Amino acid sequence: MSTNNVLLVQVSMRHLSSDAKKAGATLPEAQLNHVSLKQLRTLLDSAAAIAGSVVYPAEPELRITAPHGKFVVQIKAGNLNFISWSSTTKVGGVISPAQIIAAVSGEEQEVVYERSARASTGSRGVAVFGGLQLKFNMVLMIVAIVAVNSFTIWFVTRPVKTLAPKFTLMAPEPAERLLTEVAGVYETGGGERRLEIARNGGVQRIKFGKQRTVAQKQSYTVQAALAAGQSALVTDRKSLITIKDPQTLVLFGDTYQRVAR
User: Fold this and answer.
1) What is the CA radius of gyration of the chain?
2) Strand order in the sheet with 30-36
3) Which of 84, 104, 79, 109 is nearest to 94 (CA)?
4) N or C end of the chain: which has fewer CB within 10 A?
C-alpha cells in the first residue's frame, strides 16, 4: 500500500458532469486522466449525493481504469453499484465510496494477504483449520470469478438501450419530401430551446441561457421514418423526433413550434 498515495487512475463519465454533481442523459461523456485517489473519492462522494435524484433516461456511470483492473460504478436506485472487472477484487454490489476506493487502490487485497500471513504463524491445530478455511475461501473465490466473468460477458454483449421505439426508415423519395416539409426552425414555448432542421438531414439542437446566449449546442443527423404509424425523424443517436403536424415537433418530451422556414 506504500504506492497508493501516488496511484493515479483514469475515469470515464457517462451521463454525468465532469465534477459528478449533475446527472442527465444529454450531458456529453467526459474523460479524466491522472486522477488521484483523493480526487476520485471526491467524485464518488458527489455521485453518492445526487444518486437519489437520478431519473430515467439518465443512466450515469463512472468507468475507472486502475493499474490492476477496471471497475464500473453505476448510479442506480439511489445507490452506488460497484462492478469489478478484476478477478483479484472480491467486493461488489451496493457499497460506499470508501469501500470503492479500497477496492480500486488494492487495500482490500492487502488485508486478505496480511490475515493469511498471520494465520500461517499459529499452532498446528490452527494451521489445520486455516488450511480448510483457505480451501473454502479458494472455492468461494473461484465461484466469484465465474460470476464476475459471466456478468462481464452479459454486460458487454447486452443490447444497447435506445430512447427510440421501433421504427421503419422511409424510401428515398418520400424521405426527401418529408425532410423538405419539416425543414425550418422550431422553438419551445418559452423559447429556451431551439431545433434547426436542414433539408439534407442536419439538425442543430440549441439550449439558450440568459439573454438568449447559447448555453449548449448539439449536432445530429436525422433520417425520415415511420414510428407507430406516424411520421418521425430518427437521429444518429437513436432518439426520435415525432412530427405531430407540419408546425409541431416533439423531442425528449419537449414540444417545439415552427418559428421560421
Assistant:
1) 25
2) 30-36, 8-14, 61-66, 69-76, 79-84, 93-94
3) 79
4) C
Residues linked to residue 61 through DSSP beta bridges, in sequence order: 14, 74
102-136 in b/e burial notation, b at 16+ Cβ within 10 A? Answer: bbbbbebbeeeeeeeeeeeeeeeeeeeebeeeeee
Helices (H), 106-205: 107-119, 124-157, 172-182
Q: Are strands 214-227 and 240-245 parallel, antiparallel or unpaired?
A: unpaired
In angstroms, the CA 20 to CA 61 distance is: 10
The C-alpha atoms of residue 146 and residue 85 are separated, in whole angstroms, by 11
**CATH number of the structural domain 168-260:** 2.40.128.290
Distance CA(35)–CA(41), nearest Å, equals 10
- For residue 89, the one-letter residue type is T
Orientation angle between helical segments 107-119 and 97-105, nearest 10 degrees = 70
Overall pTM surpassing 0.70 (yes/no): no
Between 131 and 74, the more confident residue is 74
Helix (H/G/I), strand (E/B), else coil: 238:
coil
Q: Which three cell numbers stand for residue 197?
A: 432542421
Q: Which residues contact 183 (CB under 8 A, 6 or more apart)?
A: 197, 198, 199, 261
Domain boundaries, the chain: 4-157, 168-260
Give the model confidence (pLDDT) of 169-192 as tens digits: 999 999 999 999 999 999 998 889
pLDDT digits (tens, 9 = 90+) for 77-125: 899 999 887 656 666 788 899 998 988 887 755 444 444 445 445 555 5
Give the whole-angstrom CA distance, residue 73 versus residue 55: 17
